[in-house]
Design a protein that fits this description.
- The chain is mainly α and 160 residues long.
- Helix content is 72%, strand content 4%.
- The chain has a two-stranded antiparallel ribbon with strand order 1-2.
- The longest helix has 34 residues.
């Protein structure tokens, strides 16, 4: 954990670009639907692209919210590092890359493999995290158990 506020600020700024790309994708899809009137496989491809774009935009929102929160937390005294976070981030990056690769390559076996790994990662890494994460409360030497929403703040819940 480097407490890199410049990187966090770039992530926040990058979210604007991700939002713009999602709008462009939406507009392109609407244009394709209106002008080409796709059916069957082409229609499924368009809807899949829209869903993927929406999911990637949501990931960008989460990343921006974590970055905003990390900027705020960088102003407080450092706490004992949570060693699971870098591992969680690495696993998430690999999963996203592999699932997008499986989609582009039209490889259902690879997609299934990603799904199985996702279930294992969720069970072994992500679900135990709230129970294991400790955050120094800044008022005493005691640590308290926190849920990720306490770390990320309530702004990560976006109303759509």
């Amino acid at each position: 954990m480097t407490r890199d506020t410049e990187l966090a600020a770039r992530v926040v700024e990058g979210d604007v670009k991700v939002d713009q790309l999602e709008r462009e994708l939406d507009n392109l899809a609407i244009r394709l639907l209106a002008l080409r009137q796709p059916v069957a496989r082409d229609l499924r491809e368009i809807f899949s692209a829209l869903k993927i774009g929406s999911d990637l935009e949501r990931i960008g929102d989460y990343a921006a919210n974590v970055a905003k929160r990390s900027i705020a937390l960088s102003q407080t005294p450092a706490v004992r590092p949570v060693f699971a976070l870098p591992r969680m981030a690495h696993l998430a990056q690999i999963q996203i890359k592999d699932v997008l690769d499986s989609y582009v390559q039209r490889d259902p076996d690879k997609a299934y493999s990603v799904w199985k790994r996702d279930n294992r990662a969720r069970r072994d890494v992500f679900e135990p995290f709230p129970r294991a994460a400790h955050l120094y409360d800044g008022r005493s030497t005691e640590h308290r158990l926190v849920h990720p929403s306490s770390v990320y703040g309530e702004e990560h819940r976006e109303n759509r």
